[in-house]
UniProtKB/TrEMBL annotation, chain A:
Name of the protein in its database record: Phosphate transport system permease protein PstA
Domain of life: Bacteria
Gene3D superfamilies: MetI-like
TM segment ranges: 169-195, 215-237, 243-265, 317-340, 360-380
Entry's localization field: Cell inner membrane; Cell membrane
Record-linked Pfam families: BPD_transp_1 (PF00528), DUF3333 (PF11812)
Membrane topology classification: Multi-pass membrane protein
Gene Ontology cellular-component annotations: plasma membrane
Keywords: Cell membrane, Membrane, Transmembrane, Transmembrane helix, Transport
From TrEMBL, chain B:
PROSITE patterns associated with the record: ABC_TM1 (PS50928)
Taxonomic placement: Bacteria, Pseudomonadati, Pseudomonadota, Gammaproteobacteria, Oceanospirillales
Pfam families linked to this entry: BPD_transp_1, DUF3708
Keywords: Cell inner membrane, Cell membrane, Membrane, Phosphate transport, Transmembrane, Transmembrane helix, Transport
Organism: Chromohalobacter israelensis (strain ATCC BAA-138 / DSM 3043 / CIP 106854 / NCIMB 13768 / 1H11)
Keyword Transmembrane helix tagged: yes
Membrane topology, as annotated: Multi-pass membrane protein
One of the record's GO cellular component terms: plasma membrane
Protein task: Part of the binding-protein-dependent transport system for phosphate; probably responsible for the translocation of the substrate across the membrane.
Name of this chain's protein: Phosphate transport system permease protein
Length: 388, 418
């Protein structure tokens, strides 16, 4: 039983070493988790950065009758294969809109084909040798360069990578989020107010509470099945529309808003309610004039977080058909539309590798929006949060 | 007149009626009060009550009418319906005006209406659950009428491809019949979930233990938001990461060991899903470990044990129910995760224990069944609902068990904030 002093101190040293080892291991877990984030973000930035640049060529475009009929004739034969087909397609309309161009020859920058784009970015080499020589000559003259890609932010989806952009997906996201928030913000806040301030403590109330907690943990794809079976098949809401997508996401976001609103309402001290009751307010007057204004920052924070979550959601939207090819955005909640995550999903499944950088570019834009929203929520919380 | 103009006109008339109700009843109430009679409510409250009496029943009738019109296919011309609602609104206006009496509790009446409105909003969450259940169960039942439940649960071949031929009445020509044996799908789902948990639980739990027990306040404050950023990244982005970056990496590394890996192997989505779930586990465990009473820690340290021994032998066992509850929630999250597996896992149902082969999951099959150009009635489309039903039941069970565990923890240590 008896241990010598040396034995005990050796054992103690071992025990302390083990304790320190545990500290380092758990610290390693945290550092590695943070490292995942760094690797992940830098991977996306490296992949996505080229999407914000687009090769352009400076060529002589002759606007004459022949090129109105046959747009390909507007430029020299040897640079023709280097230029995006989208440019030739838009040429007749441009000439119709600007009659004064007729008969002139302009030296201007035009969008290059995606193969040229990929070649200049050093990715792959699918150009014919003759075209490559032409291109090399153009590069040496400074007449072929990578410029900021405005097309990416102003156009919708396209089968030509150099013309594909996220504008229509962004508009679709805005429309869908408007529907989502218009439905789930009032219902969520009303439910939370009822449960916190009005509801009697009975079976029905408990059922509603359990139910909301469960809804928060239901896989999002099941909300898609609900949207398909109830909204589309039963009520006949148009498929692929922001209306059906927004309504589906609203049900998914509802628990988030309810739970955060309840937390915000609960943090309002009872003394405020008692004081208001004391001067003769009715329950609704207490809620409307005292509890809600005080807890509004908390409610808004929760709603913004819910909004950010809904904005990144894809699975239920695939089920209700919002993964669609939408070249031109329409500002209507019943027309077919797509959203930013769905656009990323579509691009990611394109075999053409030029779309891989579009995918990552779209991700960077989406992440920027989401980080902005989350930062806004944090800022709101820090600015207006009151400790009682 | 188109439906839109009729609808706009209806709204305009209703607004005007509401405005009339407001001004008239407020004027009347002010007049009564000016005579010195004591009233039960303020003039504004009488006015709002009159507005509610005007608009409420009218909106209710038109909503019910629209519902009947859409659902039962009842033949009520929109014009008649809306004019009936307007007549009801006028009656409501008159009634509301006649209620402007000193002995009428307008405030209490408004209160009652608002309470009912709020309760109705609360019922929507119940309706949502019912809607999910009903939609999934009815379609799943139709599926089980076509294919036996027993084959669905025990079959080892998932081959829905031939079902559209039989839906087109050409079942005999299609060669092999459609088979709906869901075991390979569940095997794939559980394999990917297992890989995800092997990543998420050690890292998430380790990070939580470090942040609560060892880290100085400064690091804790800086690390928490970083981990939360991981939680805010959309799943489709993780999917791209898994498919474009991790999957080729896994193939390369497996090649170094002389192993042959598929580009849609199960390991890549599993690993990335694990990363996705780290913040989920770490923030839940963080809360739980934080609410283990300090008296336990102090008592243990007073007996002379090291900090590491305290964490391992006192804090973690005390927090175990909460940690298990967090892990169960994370499992349910991983089972239902869709985008990562749709983008990075395979499409081929494959019953194997090798994570380097491609496998498919329940959620991938649901998406595949519903995005094809199938008609809604075909067995393949309906099979998505059968899979959805199983997914719902499994995740619901996990959630209920997890709630039960966290409740035990809460009662044991009298923690109120979990």
């Amino acid at each position: 039983m008896s241990q010598s002093f040396e034995e005990i101190s050796a054992q103690l040293k071992k025990r302390h070493r083990r304790s320190a080892r545990m500290k380092w291991m758990t610290m390693g877990a945290l550092i590695l988790s943070a490292a995942f984030l760094v690797v992940f973000i830098s991977d996306m930035v490296v992949r996505g950065w080229p999407a914000f640049q687009q090769a352009q060529l400076q060529v002589e475009v002759s606007y004459d009758e022949q090129s109105q009929k046959l747009p390909l004739a507007a430029v020299d034969e040897d640079v023709r294969p280097l230029i995006s087909r989208g440019f030739f397609r838009s040429l007749p309309r441009e000439m119709e809109n600007n009659p004064e161009l007729m008969g002139t020859t302009q030296t201007r920058w035009v969008i290059a084909d995606s193969r040229v784009d990929q070649f200049l970015k050093g990715n792959e080499d699918r150009l014919r040798p003759a075209d490559k020589e032409t291109l090399q000559a153009l590069v040496e003259d400074g007449r072929a360069a990578l410029k900021f890609n405005t097309t990416f932010f102003t156009t919708g989806d396209s089968k030509m990578p150099e013309l594909a952009g996220i504008a229509s997906a962004a508009i679709g996201t805005v429309m869908t989020m408007l529907v989502t928030m218009a439905v789930c913000f009032p219902i969520g806040v009303m439910t939370a107010v009822y449960l916190e301030e009005f509801a009697p403590d009975n079976r029905l109330t408990q059922l509603i509470e359990i139910n909301i907690n469960n809804l928060a943990a239901v896989p999002s794809i099941l909300f898609g099945l609900l949207g398909l079976a109830i909204y589309i098949s039963f009520f006949g809401v148009p498929r692929s529309s922001p209306l059906v997508g927004g309504l589906t996401l609203a049900l998914m976001t509802l628990p988030v808003i309810i739970i955060s609103t309840r937390a915000a309402l609960r943090s309002v001290p009872d003394s405020i309610r008692h004081a208001a009751f004391g001067v003769g307010c009715s329950r609704w007057q207490v809620v409307r004039d005292h509890v809600l204004p005080v807890s509004l920052p908390g409610i808004l924070t929760g709603s913004i977080i819910g909004l950010a979550q809904a904005m990144g959601e894809t699975a239920p939207l695939i089920i209700v058909g919002m993964v669609a090819f939408i070249p031109d955005a329409s500002i209507s909640i019943t027309d077919a539309s797509t959203v930013m995550p769905a656009q990323i999903f579509t691009w990611a499944s394109e075999p053409n590798s030029a779309f891989a950088e579009k995918t990552a570019g779209g991700i960077l834009v989406l992440l920027a929006v989401l980080i902005f929203l989350n930062a806004l929520a944090v800022w709101l919380r820090n600015k207006f949060e009151r400790r009682w | 007149m188109t439906t839109n103009t009729v609808f706009l006109l209806f709204c305009a008339v209703l607004l005007v009626l509401g405005g009339v109700a407001f001004t008239l009843s407020r004027a009347k109430a002010s007049r009564v009060r000016a005579t010195g009679t004591a009233m039960h409510a303020q003039p504004d409250q009488y006015a709002w009550f009159a507005v509610l009496a005007t608009a409420g029943p009218a909106l209710l009738v038109s909503a019910l009418g629209a519902f009947a019109l859409l659902l039962m296919g009842a033949e009520i011309p929109t014009l008649y319906l809306l004019s009936a609602s307007l007549i009801i609104a006028t009656i409501g206006l008159v009634m509301g005006l006649s209620q402007v009496r000193p002995d009428f509790h307008a405030r209490r009446a408004i209160e009652g209406v608002i309470r009912k409105l709020l309760a109705a909003a609360a019922m929507i969450s119940i309706l949502t659950t019912l809607g999910i259940l009903l939609s999934i169960i009815t379609e799943a039942l139709r599926f089980f009428q076509m294919h036996s439940f027993w084959d669905f649960v025990t079959g080892t071949t998932w081959n829905p491809g031939a079902s559209f031929l039989s839906a087109a009445g050409r079942g005999e020509e299609g060669g092999s019949a459609a088979q709906f044996g869901s075991i390979p799908l569940f095997a794939g789902t559980f394999m990917i979930t297992l890989i995800a948990m092997l990543v998420a639980i050690p890292f998430g739990l380790g990070a939580a233990i470090y942040m609560v027990e060892f880290a100085p306040m400064r690091i804790r404050k800086a690390a928490k938001p970083v981990i939360e950023v991981l939680a805010g990244i959309p799943t489709v982005v993780y999917g791209v990461f898994a498919a474009l970056t991790v999957a080729p990496l896994v193939v390369d590394i497996a090649g170094l060991f002389g192993l042959d890996a598929s580009y849609s192997n199960a390991l890549a989505p599993g690993l990335v899903m694990g990363i996705m779930i780290i913040p989920f586990i770490s923030s839940l465990s963080d809360d739980v470990i934080n609410s283990v009473p300090n008296s336990l820690r102090e008592g243990a340290l007073a007996l002379g044990i090291t900090k590491g021994e305290m964490v391992r032998n006192v804090v973690v066992p005390a927090a175990a129910p909460g940690i298990i509850s967090a892990s169960l929630l994370a499992v349910s999250r991983a089972l239902g995760e869709t985008m990562i597996v749709v983008m990075a896992a395979g499409m081929r149902p494959n019953l194997t224990a090798n994570p380097l082969e491609d496998m498919t999951t329940v959620t991938v099959s649901i998406v595949a069944a519903l995005t094809g150009d199938q008609e809604f009635e075909s067995a393949q489309t309906l099979s998505a609902f059968a899979l959805g039903l199983v997914l719902f039941v499994v995740t619901l069970t996990l959630n209920v068990v997890s709630v039960f565990m966290i409740r035990r923890f809460r009662e044991k240590y009298r923690v109120n904030n979990l």
